[in-house]
Amino acid sequence: MTFIEQDIKGVWVIEPKRFGDKRGYFSEVFKQAEFDNHVGHVDFVQDNESFSTRGVLRGLHFQRGEWSQAKLVRVSLGTVLDIAVDLRHGSPTWGKHVAVELSAKTGRQLFIPRGFAHGFAVLSDEAQFQYKVDNLYAPQSEATLRFDEPALGIDWRIAPDEMLLSEKDLRGHSLEEMTPDFLGF
């Protein structure tokens, strides 16, 4: 595996090696020892999966306080644009984001540490999105940062009239509201 730290400290692109022949390929998508050696130890406690169609935009989600989550995300079908926004107060990259295209074709993964909002937009006809988390889902601590926050300047690579969003995602908080008291981290 190749580990590439991004411009925001703690965010990593991970590129698993694929061994292929005429039948297809084999790939190790996670090895604890290699992950620990490059990123640091994370105790993942749950694997999640979502399926979406073109234009679906999910995010920018996070959990506040003690329920904050680190995530290791990948796509096993299709292509998405994955976004991680740094909400760690005191970080020199607070309010900045990383945008990475993830696809089943490349097998690239993205590690997002605690203290980030996360979301993705589906660029292909369908996408199956998988992620490991290091903390359980806690609905009472769930929050959403506006996907269209002007200060972030995210190019989701989907026309606004093609975006499919949940009610929760349409009611996200502004970046200005991301105070240490609100975030709890």
Overview of the molecule:
- A 6-stranded antiparallel sheet has the order 1-2-10-7-12-5, with no helix packed on it. The protein has a 5-stranded antiparallel sheet with strand order 9-8-11-6-13, with no helix packed on it.
- A hairpin with a 6-residue loop joins strand 1 and strand 2 (12-15).
- It has one domain (44-180): Jelly Rolls (Sandwich), CATH 2.60.120.10.
- The protein is mainly beta and 185 residues long.
- The longest helix is centred in the first third of the chain and has 7 residues, at 32-38.
- The chain is built from 3 helices and 13 strands; from the N terminus they run ββββαβββββββββαα.
- 8% of the residues lie in helices and 41% in strands.
Quick summary of this structure?
The protein is mainly β and 185 residues long.
- Largest sheet strand order: 1-2-10-7-12-5
Order of helices and strands: EEEEHEEEEEEEEEHH
In what range is the share of β-strand residues?
A: 35-45%
Biggest beta-sheet profile: 6 strands, antiparallel
Uncertain regions spanning at least 5 consecutive residues: none
CATH class value? Mainly Beta
- Helix fraction, binned, reads under 10%
- CATH fold node name: Jelly Rolls
Distance between the termini: 31 Å
Total domain modules: 1
Look at the structure and give the mean pLDDT.
97
- Radius of gyration from CA coordinates: 16 Å
